[in-house]
Design brief:
Blueprint lengths: L26 E7 L12 E8 L9 E10 L8 E8 L6 E7 L4 E10 L6 E8 L9 E9 L2 E7 L11 E4 L8 E4 L2
Antiparallel strand pairs: 1-2, 2-5, 3-4, 3-6, 6-7, 8-9, 10-11
Length: 185
């Protein structure tokens, strides 16, 4: 407006939109490594059990999907990895198994409720560490030489997993006088 009404400009209409009210973030109730027998060996996949309760439906969110994301704590510069196994279009879903993780590694896990309007999405982030992978047992053990107090053997040491190997211990109950030995590299 001007002091002189003859100098007023015409009105310009501009449509603006305010941000939606964000929905309440989900509450992560379970986030722990699973250790089923025989699964966490060597380079096998490591799994996290992820459970949650939905936040109150208080915002302007029209539910689209739950998605869990993960990334290594040591790599904050890298983007989040979305988990296919932990993506669901059913709002009543409250549990999944997050897989594809490395052993003995600290991760950040982020669970998001996605809405038709991404500005209304809500996420919760928590840290977790996966279990270490134990060494596999040696294979192809072959006794090369055996005497009363000495046994010489060779073997395939197999995969060390996350173990910093100090050596191998061999028990030989049928070798009189040579009940156990410790071999280093």
């Amino acid at each position: 407006e001007c002091h002189d009404p003859r100098l007023h400009s015409n009105w310009t209409e501009v449509e603006i939109r305010t941000h939606p009210i964000i929905t309440e973030a989900p509450n992560i109730t379970t986030l722990e490594p699973l250790y089923p027998p025989g699964r966490l060996r060597g380079d096998e996949v490591h799994i996290l059990d992820l459970g949650w309760t939905a936040g109150e439906d208080i915002g302007e969110c029209i539910f689209v999907a739950w998605t869990a994301y993960f990334r290594k704590v040591s790599e904050p510069h890298l983007p989040w990895n979305a988990s296919e196994a932990c993506t669901s279009e059913d709002r009543s879903t409250s549990r999944c198994s997050l897989d594809g993780l490395d052993s003995n590694t600290e991760y950040l896990v982020q669970l998001c409720e996605h809405c038709t309007d991404p500005l209304a999405d809500a996420c919760t982030t928590l840290p977790v560490a996966t279990y270490s992978s134990p060494a596999l047992q040696p294979t192809d053990v072959l006794v090369l030489y055996r005497e009363r107090n000495q046994v010489t053997y060779e073997f395939n040491p197999a995969t060390p997993g996350d173990c910093e190997t100090l050596g191998w211990h061999m028990d030989c109950p049928r070798c009189s006088g040579a009940l156990s030995t410790f071999s280093t590299f």
